[in-house]
Backbone:
């Protein structure tokens, strides 16, 4: 027993635009939009092709916006930061040489934009108060309580709500690790904490979510 | 390994290579295995949220507008319009900026003093731009360009004021300035474009006001300030070019 | 490719990038000895420059170069010290960044120029200052007795506690904030940037604030002693403060377009001029 972690959801195939591209210039104005690869879109964008920028935007907009929304819990701010992340990317697209995946580059840039925004607002990225809770106290929480499996009894909306309510420090690490797929060493570097702290924060975040989801389920059941 | 041990090592082993002692305990302890299953489920469900939300359409609209404003989006196959008054193309190096900046100040002083001495002549307004030059054309929302409750401004026309030929050259110089900036510091292009628009609007307004109030010291000072600001802009571009 | 492999590759790429960046960034330190009043100039296209007072007779410089695509030249001729960074081939605003931190004798003459910034800041000096930038943000605080000349294209400018100084500040579209700034001459001008003054205009100074379309706002405390003249050609002008009438105003009276009058003994002369911007004089303790 002890399940292997589920496979990561596959990213959309870059060889096909996932949705129709708005009318623009050149090949992309076909009524049935011809597919354009990401690599080709990047090269065209370097030449200032508006339609190519739009293709890249549509390919990655959900990822960027979802990350911003999850971290900020504010759609207006999420829009602003998503816009800023794309603008920063597009301004620098001339320097992209393909050494790493374009999506990795954009992903990293988005996280930096969001973290900088949180820092400017003085919001904690990793809360010290949250780490004060000792391991002993955490273990007591883990050992107590009714154990009934969560799987299948909670929908994604409830999970989203529970994530929104996490304390800021736990939320940051949880989003970066479990939703966005960064490793602890990357998270530690980005938010300025130790790898051990990142792991501890993640574990506590998951425990809090587990408690919150059980509470939601109990409420729903009327118990 | 007992339950307490499992809780202690969980943050470390949960997402990493499987620990055999840990696995053995989970097989025998429903309590711990339920906990691990729940935490793993939370992690797996969370991953599905990575692309859960779609931004509204206005986000792309704003991005596209900004890219255009910064000149990162090029209009394909649109011929670059040249001012009709330019007989031939001249090749420039950045050093032309120095005498232009000085000429701006000198021309400004000349215009100010001429206007102070002469009565208003008809139809001799010289504007430092032509309609074809996008940079110098005032945008519609510039407050100073709005109609004002004063005698109507004389219709502008790109006529050369023969006694101050350098004013006409500002049009070409503005274009060349933007070309230099676009070549040497493209990321600064939007800044220069906005500021050039501002100072040109200032010059236009101050000139028009001085024309209507030729003896007005305040009007003269405004025009002088406007030329100084433009000369400063050229100086900054020169520093950028070096 | 499964998640583990992709994550590993992405992780290695990121770690490699971080290592490369960290390795490329270099720190340089310089120490210059001076005898008498020093004159220090720093010229950098990208980067922050911070200047603070230090010990007499010594100028200390710490410079952090973002990569090997930028070079730093330095030189000393007597008490004149020059630092200049310039881009090498392939350098850009990221890789060409150099951040400077300087400590200088308090009476040093300082000239700073940064094209794109992000910032130039000077504090607690008594010497002359000349700061220039295109988009760089400029911040000067607690500097007195010297000549302060600042110019930006659209970088915002903030002066705080600059006393008994000769001040000339210009920006095309950057906002200018002056908090407790006074001196024999204070001249501030913008084209479309806004000007905010918060202070009492000191004693016996000449103050001129000029804009094309930017608004001008002055907050002044009771007890201010100044002679005010304000005029906007097309913008609205308003004084929330009751001024004593004066006989020879600088501008013709025009309702909503000008105001003039005195407060206290009219020790300082203050002129607000705008072409189409709004001008407003307000009580500092009755802000809305």
Residues:
């Amino acid at each position: 027993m002890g399940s292997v972690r589920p496979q990561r959801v596959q990213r959309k195939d870059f060889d096909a635009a996932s949705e129709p591209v708005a009318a623009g210039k050149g090949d992309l104005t076909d009524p049935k939009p011809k597919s354009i690869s990401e690599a080709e879109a990047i090269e065209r964008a370097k030449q200032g092709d508006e339609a190519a920028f739009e293709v890249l935007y549509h390919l990655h907009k959900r990822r960027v916006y979802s990350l911003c929304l999850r971290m900020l819990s504010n759609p207006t701010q999420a829009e602003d930061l998503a816009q800023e992340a794309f603008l920063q990317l597009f301004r620098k697209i001339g320097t992209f040489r393909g050494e790493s995946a374009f999506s990795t580059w954009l992903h990293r840039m988005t996280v930096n934009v969001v973290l900088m925004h949180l820092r400017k607002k003085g919001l904690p990225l990793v809360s010290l108060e949250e780490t004060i809770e000792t391991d002993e106290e955490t273990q007591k929480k883990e050992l107590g309580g009714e154990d009934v499996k969560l799987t299948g009894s909670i929908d994604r909306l409830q999970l989203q709500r529970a994530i929104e309510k996490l304390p800021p420090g736990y939320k940051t690490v949880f989003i970066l690790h479990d939703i966005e797929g960064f490793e602890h060493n990357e998270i530690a570097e980005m938010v300025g904490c130790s790898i051990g702290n990142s792991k501890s924060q993640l574990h506590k975040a998951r425990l809090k979510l587990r408690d919150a989801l059980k509470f939601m389920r109990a409420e729903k059941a009327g118990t | 390994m007992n339950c307490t041990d499992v809780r202690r090592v969980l943050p470390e082993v949960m997402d990493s290579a499987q620990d055999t002692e840990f696995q053995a305990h989970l097989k025998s302890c429903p309590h711990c295995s339920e906990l691990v299953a729940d935490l793993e489920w939370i992690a797996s469900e969370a991953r599905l949220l990575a692309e859960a939300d779609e931004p509204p359409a206005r986000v792309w609209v704003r991005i596209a507008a900004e890219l255009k404003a910064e000149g990162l989006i090029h209009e394909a196959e649109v011929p670059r319009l040249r001012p009709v008054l330019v007989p031939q193309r001249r090749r420039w190096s950045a050093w032309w900026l120095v005498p232009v900046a000085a000429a701006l100040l000198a021309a400004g002083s000349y215009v100010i003093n001429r206007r102070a001495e002469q009565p208003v002549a008809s139809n001799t307004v010289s504007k430092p731009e032509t309609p074809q030059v996008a940079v110098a054309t005032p945008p519609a929302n510039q407050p100073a360009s709005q109609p004002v409750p004063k005698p109507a401004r004389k219709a502008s026309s790109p006529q050369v004021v023969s006694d101050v030929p350098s004013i006409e050259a500002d049009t070409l110089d503005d274009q060349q300035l933007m070309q230099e900036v676009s070549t040497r510091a493209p990321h600064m292009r939007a800044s220069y474009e906005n500021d050039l628009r501002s100072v040109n609007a200032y010059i236009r307004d101050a000139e028009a006001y001085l024309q209507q109030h030729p003896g007005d010291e305040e009007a003269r000072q405004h025009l002088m300030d406007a030329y100084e600001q433009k000369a400063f802009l050229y100086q900054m571009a020169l520093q950028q070019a070096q | 490719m499964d998640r583990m492999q992709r994550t590993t590759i992405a992780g290695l790429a990121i770690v490699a990038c971080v290592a490369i960046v960290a390795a490329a960034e270099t720190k340089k330190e310089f120490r210059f000895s001076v005898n008498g009043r020093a004159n220090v100039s720093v010229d950098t296209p990208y980067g922050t420059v911070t200047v603070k007072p230090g010990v007499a007779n010594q100028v200390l410089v710490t410079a952090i170069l973002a990569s090997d695509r930028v070079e730093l030249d330095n030189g000393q001729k007597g008490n004149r010290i020059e630092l200049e960074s310039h881009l090498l081939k392939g350098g850009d605003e990221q890789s060409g960044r150099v951040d400077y931190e300087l400590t200088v004798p308090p009476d040093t003459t300082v000239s700073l120029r940064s094209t794109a910034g992000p910032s130039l800041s000077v504090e607690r000096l008594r010497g002359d200052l000349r700061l220039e930038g295109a988009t760089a943000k400029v911040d000067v605080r607690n500097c007195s007795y010297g000549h302060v000349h600042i110019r930006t294209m659209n970088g915002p400018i903030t002066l705080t506690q600059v006393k008994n100084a000769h001040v000339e500040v210009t920006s095309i579209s950057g906002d200018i904030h002056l908090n407790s700034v006074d001196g024999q001459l204070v001249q501030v001008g913008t084209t479309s940037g806004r000007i905010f003054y918060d202070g009492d205009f000191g004693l016996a100074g000449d103050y001129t604030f000029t804009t094309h379309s930017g608004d001008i706002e002055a907050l002044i405390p009771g007890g201010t002693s100044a002679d005010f003249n304000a005029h906007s050609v097309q913008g609205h002008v308003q004084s929330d403060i009751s001024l004593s009438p004066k006989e020879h105003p600088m501008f013709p009276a025009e309702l909503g377009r000008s105001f003039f009058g005195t407060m206290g003994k009219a020790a300082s002369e203050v002129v607000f001029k705008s072409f189409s911007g709004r001008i407003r004089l307000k009580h500092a303790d009755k802000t809305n």
Summary: The first helix of chain B runs from residue 3 to 13. The radius of gyration of chain B is 32 Å.
